[in-house]
Specification:
The protein contains 27 helices and 40 strands. It is an alpha/beta fold. The chain has an 8-stranded mixed β-sheet with strand order 1-2-3-4-5-6-8-7, sandwiched between helices. A 7-stranded mixed β-sheet has the order 11-12-10-9-13-14-15, sandwiched between helices. The two termini are about 20 Å apart.
Length: about 950
């Protein structure tokens, strides 16, 4: 490591792991004087053509002077980075700061020349693109704003690396060389390019794990039982289409088979490539296995072994070492302490999990951090009348355990473009990178439903999970997820109920619901449930208990044809008589009616219909068959009725059935909300420009204020000045330490006035009596002052102030805060103890668009107070929305503004008044979402 006094300290924070285009990983780190031998070895493996492209002349070997130059850096004006796999260089990049004349320079020069060299065997993997992102981030940190690169015209690959990066560029051609110049500030296009590359790379890395051509189970026991032997048997019995190997170092010499599978004492003994290794050995033996796998070229690991971060601090360090070790060889990890993964695709048929039975194939992607919850989800999907687990079954399943590497974010990247997955269900106990998860969730939800249930909502994350600290309560995080289009549910039952509906039914066009059935009471229960969930139900249509299958068909057909209905809930109670005949006839009646109107969702609420579950799933030839040796259910569970509306290859449309009206309606309400989000997301609105915003003036003020310290709350005058740059005007308050001072202050601002106590225990607590309003003259003011001091004590403790009265209206609170994990968040609610007690506050991620500001105002439960409740004058919500947008712009433009509170804001019939404000400044937290692509650091 470099220690010379003329060089800066080694920048360890530049080290990072990245996922490459083919799904493998590489380590990016600064080049140091210790890398001389690695550099020479790397250069010897580069082709003559690549060397010619790099140096513009034949350059067969590096001289000692070259090696010294390329390994000695000051990490400011001269920087070199290397991408490594297995500790060896596979690519390098360097920049040298230059002045206007092109000669070496130091700051304040802000331009640098950049050059790459990629080993031929690793070209086409996206190594240069990843290195460009990292060297650009380093350059920005060191005050460099532009890169220049000279490239031979024949070196089209490198020209493409620069031109595809998305930066603003200038190109020239002189003396047979293409010169490219480009700024390094991230642009919308450069971020879009970066996110697209990230998605492709991370999706490919997951695909390599889910669809391997060959699997080795390391730690498969010689005798039945045990984790390794169980996983081996499950893979074999599922009919895995690739090559399967058993590995156990305790096998006797000469034993070539175990449980009917080719067996080996070491991964090294396997003839041919291994794509996925399932590691089921004690934790202390895992490092040796990782080394064997890395040296054999294994692409990924599924570590089911426990004893890592789930076992305490020592295990956590063992887990960190495991991830570092695997990434050294370019391998990704599911686990440790993982339950496993499943891919039901006929081309793969992989059950590398502890689940004894393979789920039937379908179109639901399932992710669970907890193995126990993963078991519960698979079991529940399996026994729900053959519905979800049939045509609408599982496409892929991953239970990540401690999720030390592969996480829910990676699976979202994969499922986003997976044509075999229509709905994503996730059980999350922690979100390691909320900012990235929200971004990926928004993109995924725009294409397919994403349903999430969160565990550990009211306590710490599980011991094995490394998560970033957040100051946001769970309710705020949930609101932000909903803003991103996530369908947030509270229980595993709701997760499956909602997924069952979304997997095969169309999205409703609105909240209008028709209800029909043969039970008036069940219809009324459904009606009440719809009202409770915010839907708009029609009066239930009672077909009477004598209704036949033909009556159901006719009633459902009429409801679906009604233009004032967006969805239909069919309620049914057991038929009297020959049950199986009635059930089959009812199933066929509902199937045929629904098939004629495929644009509207249909749900069934049933009560103890013994044969309907089987009839619903048997109504089409593609329905799942009964599991061998499984007894028939004693009563109906949730089932699905297939129809031919969708047709192949996706299979028939399925009507979900629920045993309770509340469950069916709750799932339908989620679908209605999600459908509305999809429509809104198609027109997301815009962030308005306001001519009176003085962004430069605010930046100058902030720079001057931060020169005083690293983090502090502004004084009243400084707050008013800063907010004024963004058109936010605060009513001034004048201190009133004595009655005479209060009178003088009132004369200054003009009557009528308000007298307020600003002591911390009384501030914004009008309910405690610390505020006196509408004081019209000196006499009323002096009387109010005396009452206040008599009730609460001396002025020194009360800190009274005088403020001019604002027009009457509705008191609200506007807040913005930058959370280290979630990012900048804008919050809104009514002022007062009642809103705080009910947690009636709405939240949006910053920057907020005009449509989001309007929805924010309307999303709190007490919003009717703003819109003329009980005959009151409606508040000026347009002015309120503009205020929200201005606060959003302030925090988005200046991340040094880490907290803003406007309280109270009085929204009158015309205009509003900001009566109190506070602003906190601090150095901005790191924005990893704007930096280069990296995997979580270990």
């Amino acid at each position: 490591m470099q220690t010379s006094p003329d060089r800066h300290e080694y920048p360890a924070h530049w080290e990072a792991d990245v996922v490459l285009r083919d799904g493998g990983t590489a380590r990016v780190r600064p080049i140091t004087v210790d890398d001389a031998e690695r550099l020479v070895s790397f250069y010897e493996q580069v082709s003559d053509e690549s060397k010619y492209y790099r140096f513009f002349a034949p350059y067969p070997r590096l001289s000692a002077k070259d090696v010294h130059r390329f390994t000695h850096h000051d990490f400011v004006d001269r920087v070199g980075l290397a991408a490594t796999v297995g500790g060896e260089f596979i690519a390098t990049v360097r920049y040298d700061r230059i002045g206007p004349d092109g000669t070496p320079a130091s700051a304040p020069a802000d331009e640098a020349e950049v050059a790459f060299l990629v080993q031929d065997a690793h070209q086409g993997r996206g190594v240069a693109s990843a290195l460009l992102e990292h060297i650009a981030a380093v350059a920005r940190e060191r005050g460099i704003r532009r890169f220049a690169a000279e490239v031979l015209p024949a070196n089209t690959k490198m020209i493409k690396v620069f031109t595809d990066a998305g930066y603003t560029q200038k190109r020239s051609f002189e003396d047979g060389v293409v010169r490219l110049e480009f700024g390094l500030e991230p642009t919308d296009r450069s971020l879009a390019v970066q996110y697209a590359r990230e998605q492709r790379a991370e999706a490919r890395s997951v695909q390599r794990l889910l669809a391997p051509g060959s699997v080795a189970v390391v730690g498969a026991g010689r005798n039945p039982g045990g984790v390794g032997r169980s996983v081996l048997g499950n893979i074999r019995d599922a009919g895995f289409t690739g090559r399967l190997h058993a590995v156990n170092k305790a096998l006797p010499e000469g034993q070539k088979e175990l449980a009917g599978v080719p067996a080996h004492r070491s991964v090294r003994g396997i003839d041919g490539p291994v794509d996925l290794a399932v590691v089921a050995v004690p934790a202390e033996q895992v490092p040796e296995v990782v080394t064997e796998c890395g040296e054999h070229g294994v692409q990924g690991l599924l570590v089911v072994s426990a004893g890592y971060a789930d076992s305490g601090p020592e295990g956590r360090e063992r887990q960190r070492a495991l991830v570092r070790h695997a990434r050294t060889y370019g391998m990704r990890i599911i686990g440790p302490n993982a339950f496993g993964l499943i891919n039901t695709s006929p081309e793969v048929r992989l059950n590398a999990s502890l689940a004894p039975e393979m789920p039937r194939p379908g179109r639901i992607g399932l992710f669970a951090q907890s193995g126990a919850i993963g078991i519960a989800l698979l079991s529940r999907l399996h026994r729900r009348g053959g519905g979800v687990t049939g045509v609408t079954g599982v496409s892929t399943f991953v239970s990540s355990g401690n999720r030390a590497d592969v996480s829910g974010n990676d699976l979202l990247q994969y499922w986003y473009e997976d044509p075999g997955t229509d709905v994503v269900l996730m059980y999350l106990e922690s979100i390691g990178n909320p900012r990235k998860f929200t971004r990926l969730a928004r993109r995924t939800a725009a294409a397919k439903p994403l349903v999430v249930v969160q565990g550990a909502r009211h306590g710490a994350a599980p011991q094995g999970h490394a998560v970033r600290a957040t100051r946001l309560p769970h309710t705020t995080v949930s609101a932000l997820l909903r803003q991103a289009g996530v369908i947030r549910v509270d229980t595993i039952t709701d997760l499956v109920d909602t997924g069952l509906l979304l997997a095969r039914q169309p999205l409703p066009a609105g909240p209008r619901v028709a209800i029909l059935g043969n039970s008036e009471s069940l219809g009324l229960l459904t009606y009440d449930a719809c009202l409770a969930e915010g839907l708009r139900p029609h009066p239930p249509l009672d077909l009477t208990t004598a209704a036949s299958a033909a009556d159901f068909h006719a009633g459902l057909s009429r409801a679906l044809a009604d233009g004032s209905c967006d969805a239909v809930v069919v309620t049914a109670i057991p038929a009297v008589g020959e049950r199986s005949v009635a059930d089959a006839a009812l199933a066929e009646a509902l199937r045929s009616a629904a098939a004629a109107a495929p644009a509207k969702p249909v749900l069934v609420v049933h009560v103890e219909l013994g044969g309907l579950a089987e009839a619903l799933s048997a109504a089409a030839s593609t329905a799942p068959q009964a599991v061998a040796d499984s007894p028939p259910p004693h009563h109906a569970t949730d089932a699905l009725l297939p129809t031919a509306a969708d047709g192949p290859p996706d299979g028939p449309r399925l009507i979900p059935a629920y045993p309770a009206a509340e469950r069916a309606v709750r799932a339908l309400a989620q679908a209605v909300t999600y459908a509305q989000w999809r429509r809104d997301a198609a027109e997301p609105g815009k962030v308005p420009e306001y001519e009176d915003i003085d962004e430069k003036g605010a930046a100058t003020a902030i720079d001057g204020l931060l020169a005083r310290g690293k983090g502090f709350t502004l004084g009243a005058d400084e707050t008013c000045d800063l907010l004024g740059h963004y058109g936010i005007h605060v009513h001034h308050t004048l201190p009133a330490p004595a009655p005479d001072a209060a009178v003088e202050a009132a004369r200054s601002v003009g009557y009528p006035v308000a007298l307020k106590a600003t002591a911390p225990h009384l501030r914004h607590r009008a309910d405690l009596g610390g505020v006196r309003l509408d004081l019209a003259d000196e006499e009323q003011l002096r009387r109010a002052y005396a009452e206040l001091t008599e009730q609460f004590g001396a002025p020194d403790g009360l800190r009274p102030v005088v403020q001019r009265m604002a027009p009457r209206g509705v008191d609200v609170v506007v807040r913005a805060v930058i959370d280290p994990a979630a990012g900048a968040v804008l919050s809104f609610g009514l002022a007062g103890a009642a809103s705080q007690l009910l947690e009636d506050t709405a939240h949006r991620l910053i920057p907020v668009t005009d449509r989001e500001a309007a929805s924010l105002v309307r999303s709190i439960r007490t919003a009717p107070l703003l819109f003329g409740w009980r005959g009151s004058a409606p508040a000026d919500t347009r002015a309120l929305e503009e205020l929200l947008l201005r606060v959003s712009r302030l925090v988005d433009d200046h991340p040094e503004v880490v907290a803003v509170t406007l309280e109270p804001v009085v929204v009158a019939s015309h205009g509003l008044s900001v009566l109190g404000a506070s602003v906190r400044l601090a150095p901005p937290p790191a924005r990893d979402d704007l930096g280069p692509r990296t995997l979580p650091a270990y």
